[in-house]
Amino acid sequence: MSPYMLIILIFTLGLGTLITLSSSHWLIAWMGLELNTFAILPLMAQQHSPRAMEATIKYFIIQTTAATMLLFASVSNAWLSGQWEIQQMSHPTPLALITIALALKLGLAPMHAWFPEVLQGLNFSTGLILSTWQKLAPFSLLLQIPPTSSFLLITLGFISVLMGGWGGLNQTQLRKILGYSSIAHLGWMILIMQYAPPLTLLALTVYIVLTSSMFLTFLYNQATNINSLAISWTKTPMLTALTPLVLLSLGGLPPLTGFLPKWAILQELTKQGLTPVAALTALSALLSLYFYLRLSYATALTTPPNNLPATLPWRIIFKQPTTFLAVLITMSLSLLPLSPSVMAFFTF
Amino acid sequence: MKYLLFLLLFLLILGVVGVASNPSPGFAALSLVMVAGSGCSLLAGQGGYFLALILFLIYLGGMLVVFAYSVAFTGSDYVEGWGTRRISLAAAGYLLLVWGGGVILNTNLNEEFWTVGVSFGEFMSLEYSLVGVAHLYMGGGWLLVAGAWALLLVLLAVLELVRGASRGAVRVV
């Protein structure tokens, strides 16, 4: 792609999110979301394969449907209450519709079916943008709207955790696995949103760090399915040693960073008197943990049946800089002892 | 005036029925023109002249024309319209539905007076859309720039997506 085009698209991605994050008017927020949608479409279609084009078209249709629902709900709210403020929505129907529209934008269950397929059609770097950056703007809107139906948010959250875990069990393609893991983590974030919004931000940030580590690891190893992952130990021994730990952090095991948001969320849910929800969600997270374990098993705990010459790769010096990946992996493994300061960072 | 309003409303409903009942996109687009024409005349008659003008220019003169050109690529040999029995029955069914809805709702056209104007500040008895556009250009500031950037971006994104030959996505290499 021409570098001028790339600069314009990446700039607009940043501009769109910034506009939505800093807006108090629904039309401006919608404009930012639309900017994000349109700016990422050529990036998704970069590979020019039929699968990439199909992923682009699916993404476009889903995102514009969600944006239209958002526009409809905000116009209905303007009609009913006479003003366009995001934080002053008063009528329950537009509120519920906006929550569902933003859930469709994010890929929460039961509106999650598009997400793994769209991720499968993209290369790892575009998939990374889709999984991390594109979540920021809808979350900023979800955090700002007044409290809506408690049942809706808990249902969205719990079903996302369940479907994220359940759907990922049968996958061998790594991008689909990362898609289902994204759905599950978003479910955790939505679950706690109405009780402690700082914990949502904490979960979102930890998730972004963790999933960026995984995307960059797979990008570095050029591994797209479990079989390719299994033979990647020959290319990057150091990374192979750390990948299982990052995966277990994604699964939420102590003493790694991924445990922190789950711990805080379960504690807050119990304090709010929602112990059965907390227990069921924790049990559903076991499903995700199973396929994370399967990936770490394939990465570092088994040696694929190969003859000796096939296991020795060319001695090619990898030219990709790994500084950022190193920082991300360090953060995803060792932030748990810093829990108090990490949580203070998000409490406002 | 009553008769003009009745005629325009009748053409509106007839056009909507035409859009709903025609499987051929060409005929449906033609019905859409009828809908837009009568709807805009209604709107203009009640004070919403700016909105009607913009709708004609952009919707009919821009989007519908492009749609019609794209549809012309998919031309089929045996086009069915209101002449065939199946489609004319469907259209009659839709008209019956509208008539039934009217009977149920039972609105009286004589009693309603509606307008699309507003007066506040320095804008006296002008239309909402006109006032809004004036505000966008007057005090819009960076929002206007952001809006223009959004339009430019959509153009560039579409150009990038439909670029042909080996650099684009339309033809698979």
TrEMBL record, chain A:
Alphabetical UniProt keywords: Electron transport, Membrane, Mitochondrion, Mitochondrion inner membrane, NAD, Respiratory chain, Translocase, Transmembrane, Transmembrane helix, Transport, Ubiquinone
Parts of the chain that traverse the membrane: 59-80, 92-115, 151-170, 177-195, 201-220, 241-261, 273-293, 324-346
Any one GO MF annotation of this record: NADH dehydrogenase (ubiquinone) activity
Enzyme Commission code(s) on record: 7.1.1.2
Compartment annotation: Mitochondrion inner membrane
Membrane protein topology class: Multi-pass membrane protein
GO cellular component, one term: mitochondrial inner membrane
Domain (NADH dehydrogenase subunit 2 C-terminal) ranges: 289-341
Catalytic activity: a ubiquinone + NADH + 5 H(+)(in) = a ubiquinol + NAD(+) + 4 H(+)(out)
Pfam families tied to this protein: NADH_dehy_S2_C, Proton_antipo_M
Sections of the chain in a coiled coil: none
One GO BP annotation of this record: mitochondrial electron transport, NADH to ubiquinone
Stretches assigned to the NADH:quinone oxidoreductase/Mrp antiporter transmembrane domain: 23-286
The keyword Amino-acid biosynthesis is annotated on this UniProt entry: no
Family the entry assigns: Belongs to the complex I subunit 2 family.
Function comment: Core subunit of the mitochondrial membrane respiratory chain NADH dehydrogenase (Complex I) which catalyzes electron transfer from NADH through the respiratory chain, using ubiquinone as an electron acceptor. Essential for the catalytic activity and assembly of complex I.
Protein name, UniProt field: NADH-ubiquinone oxidoreductase chain 2
Species: Kryptolebias marmoratus
UniProtKB/TrEMBL annotation, chain B:
Keyword Electron transport on entry: yes
Listed GO CC annotations: mitochondrial membrane
Residues in the signal sequence: 1-21
Keywords: Electron transport, Membrane, Mitochondrion, NAD, Respiratory chain, Signal, Translocase, Transmembrane, Transmembrane helix, Transport, Ubiquinone
Main localization category: mitochondrion
Catalytic activity: a ubiquinone + NADH + 5 H(+)(in) = a ubiquinol + NAD(+) + 4 H(+)(out)
UniProt-annotated location(s): Mitochondrion membrane
Transmembrane segments: 52-75, 87-105, 134-159
InterPro entries named in the record: ComplexI_Subunit6, NADH_UbQ/plastoQ_OxRdtase_su6, Nuo/plastoQ_OxRdtase_6_NuoJ
Protein function: Core subunit of the mitochondrial membrane respiratory chain NADH dehydrogenase (Complex I) which catalyzes electron transfer from NADH through the respiratory chain, using ubiquinone as an electron acceptor. Essential for the catalytic activity and assembly of complex I.
Protein name: NADH-ubiquinone oxidoreductase chain 6
Organism: Kryptolebias marmoratus
